[in-house]
Amino acid sequence: MLILGLTGGISTGKSTVSSYLSEKYKIPIIDADKIARDVVKPNTPAYNAIVEHFSPRIPELISKEDRSLNGAALGAYVFNDKEELKKLNSITHPAVRKQILHKIFNYYIQKQPVIILDIPLLFESGMDWLYSRVLTVTCEPDTQLSRLLKRNPELTTTQAENRIKSQMLLPLKTALSDYVIENNGSVEELKQKIDEFVTLNLPTVRYNRRNNVSYLVHNLWNYLQVIFPPFAVIGGLWAFLRKLRLRLIYKLTNY
């Protein structure tokens, strides 16, 4: 099973790529953002830990209506304080990882040839060891800022810039990635690039009759990993060693 990590900066178009891959190609998507929302629902361990730490600092943290977390207030606070952002991630990431591993196992026993891990903070969260390859969606800085302000009109330019700066720089993500899709144009142009990416890089050996979709096998090595498990083990070991090297590069950047 090929596990493709999908990441990118805020407002680069990663969600559009994820949705298109799911809708057109019927590839299972594990959405880390959705899981992250689920693990902080009221009375979950992560929710209780967040409330304990952040409620003294954020008076409006808890919604009076349903006791859910006020994501806007929490985000406004942590995106202006790197240490507090690290604290929040240290609470949520373990719970998210547990759910992701559970879903990966389920797809494995279903013999899915390809799954996608949609993880915005893939490198930052230390979850890069989960994937076989990584695809990063990127765009020009000015485009990223304008998209974020359009999507979240309540943000000031400074607040939007702080949210972008709270994530790993896009050039570094690109350098650590196997594949890159640049999204500076229209949605149709983006879809064309996704189609080209699928044709060249996503393998399978069986025709998906139920969804009437088939993937093209681009190279022999990908093909062998799908049909012959020992080759997948070798591929996994190679990927692990490669990730150790990339992790060292990441640490040396002192991000």
UniProtKB/TrEMBL annotation:
One of its GO terms (molecular function) is ATP binding. The keyword Zinc does not apply. SUPFAM superfamilies: P-loop containing nucleoside triphosphate hydrolases. Keywords: ATP-binding, Membrane, Nucleotide-binding, Transmembrane, Transmembrane helix. InterPro entries: Depp_CoAkinase, P-loop_NTPase. PANTHER family: BIFUNCTIONAL COENZYME A SYNTHASE-RELATED (PTHR10695:SF46), DEPHOSPHO-COA KINASE-RELATED (PTHR10695). This is Dephospho-CoA kinase. It comes from Pichia inconspicua.
